[in-house]
From TrEMBL:
The chain crosses the membrane at residues 52-71. Residues 89-147 form the NfeD-like C-terminal domain. This is Serine protease. It is a multi-pass membrane protein. One of its GO terms (cellular component) is membrane. One of its GO terms (biological process) is proteolysis.
Amino acid sequence: MTALGVLALVVGVLLIVIEAHAPTYGALGVVGTVLAGTGAWLLFTSGGVGLEVALPVTLGVAAVGLGAVAVTGRKVLTARREPVRTGAQSLVGSEALVRSWDGEQGQVEMDGGLWRARMAFGYTEIPSAGECVVVEGIRGLTLRVRRREPWELPC
């Protein structure tokens, strides 16, 4: 019974560690917490110590495990709501300075680089050179931009 308790405790802790590094939304963490609690229960009850020690230790292991799962789950849910911060999609919402504009397309400067730009769908007002625009999207190497709204902070 002691070997089974040690095995359950080790596998439970291992599952909690995997939960911290893999996005399983708490599934492995809950199973790991149950296994760790079961392992602690088996270790203390098989050693003849009795319920006076086994119950508080098992409840302590369960509380710490569920607390770790709750913290990890909260971080995962918070990260899912965050906008993309890498790659081309990180440009959306950024400001760019119009260098030149001719008809439906133009050239804008953003972060020290020149980009080809077109007006975003639904926006018809043509920006002038030196005006700040906001990136609404990106398709290939062409930015979809719009003019700044009057209520937005200046560039």
